[in-house]
Amino acid sequence: MAMLIVSRKDAESIEIRPCEGIDPKTTLADLFASGPIEITVFSTSGNRVKMGVQAPEQLTIWRKDAAGR
Predict the structure, then answer these.
(1) Gap between the Cα atoms of 66 and 31, Å rounded
(2) What residues does 40 pair with on adjacent strands?
(3) Considering Cα of 8, then 10, then 55, then 15, what sign does the dihedral take?
């Protein structure tokens, strides 16, 4: 598993979703077979938090503003 390090301000978010091309019949048990999602807070400053998000390969993590939605 790789870790994404991201900073977020108040009211900003991240989005965790299945990777493109994942079989829609994949169960949650299958998605998390290699481990859970782990979020680590590295620092906080004012209204900003720096965190690392580690998730199974079958999941993608996006800064909500960069998720294309």
Answers:
(1) 23
(2) 52
(3) negative
Task: Write phi, then psi, for 27 (nearest 5 degrees).
Answer: -90, 165
Taking only the tens place, the pLDDT of each residue in 16-42 is 999 999 998 999 999 999 899 999 999
CATH topology classification for 3-66: Immunoglobulin-like (2.60.40)
Domain boundaries, the chain: 3-66
Dihedral angle of Cα 2, 34, 68, 53, to the nearest 10 degrees: -50
Going 3 to 5 to 10 to 16, the CA torsion angle's sign is negative
pTM score, two decimals?
0.74
Which one, of 52, 56, 31, lies nearest residue 43 by Cα?
Answer: 52
